[in-house]
Amino acid sequence: MSRAGGPPPLCLTVAGSDSGGGAGIQADLKTMLALGVHGMSVVTAVTAQNSLGVTGAWELPAEAVTAQYRAVVDDIGVQAVKTGMLSSAVLVETVAGLLAGTDAPVVVDPVGVSKHGDALLAASALDAVRGELLPLATVATPNLDEVAQLTGVVVEDEDGMRRAADAVLGHGPRWALIKGGHLAAHGGRAVDLLTDGSEELWLRAPRHDNRHTHGTGCTLASAVAAGLAKGLPVPEAVTAAKEYVTGAIAAGFALGGGIGPVDHAWRWR
């Protein structure tokens, strides 16, 4: 936590930009502001996207990603890092090398596809995510599509979520947060599982019928990182993040002609 009169806790997001403002870097920084931490960013890719989908994506060079990271960490410092869209093996390897030399908890959101079903991670990068990025994670936060992409485990029920968590933990993160929001068996009720292989925490949100949920995964992962930057233990950081994102989903609003974003400022309205 910050000292009285000093800066707030420092949190860094390493992710892609969403021009529509609902996900990616934009969602991360809004979340960090809402939760009382100072958000900083390393942009890994620029996307052209809106409420209807992603129409283009351009990856930044590894040297640009490295320069941004070093500029922030070497001067300002950081108390937690969140990773999001790392679209290629080169970027995954670059970011993993940077994280390995940083003494701060890391939340890895292994972004594979967008809310609209657009691919955001090259198949050739999966081995690097498994072998280099996940072992550095304090918490990994895959959704069910990303679990299947990374481990081959197809989840259909809560027992499947346990198997998925075991498979993810097998790649080295300290904790796995399996996001079950895409599980039809939940009937519209988001159920997530946090576990380190011995301790289990189930997080169950009320049912909602709001279709405007763009940015949910980015928001949850960055909210967890914000909690870790504040010094919270992982279960407390995840519980607080789930409460925040549940409110943001309930307040999600229509924007454009497709799926609108969650409302990061719901506590202020």
Automatic annotation (TrEMBL):
Keywords carried by this UniProt record: Kinase, Thiamine biosynthesis, Transferase
TM region(s), chain numbering: none
UniProt EC number: 2.7.1.49, 2.7.4.7
Phosphoprotein listed as a keyword: no
All copies of domain Pyridoxamine kinase/Phosphomethylpyrimidine kinase, residue ranges: 18-263
Reaction catalysed by this enzyme: 4-amino-5-hydroxymethyl-2-methylpyrimidine + ATP = 4-amino-2-methyl-5-(phosphooxymethyl)pyrimidine + ADP + H(+); 4-amino-2-methyl-5-(phosphooxymethyl)pyrimidine + ATP = 4-amino-2-methyl-5-(diphosphooxymethyl)pyrimidine + ADP
Pfam family, one: Phos_pyr_kin
Molecular function GO terms recorded: hydroxymethylpyrimidine kinase activity; phosphomethylpyrimidine kinase activity
NCBIfam families per the UniProt record, alphabetical: HMP-P_kinase
Function, as annotated: Catalyzes the phosphorylation of hydroxymethylpyrimidine phosphate (HMP-P) to HMP-PP, and of HMP to HMP-P.
The protein, known as: Bifunctional hydroxymethylpyrimidine kinase/phosphomethylpyrimidine kinase
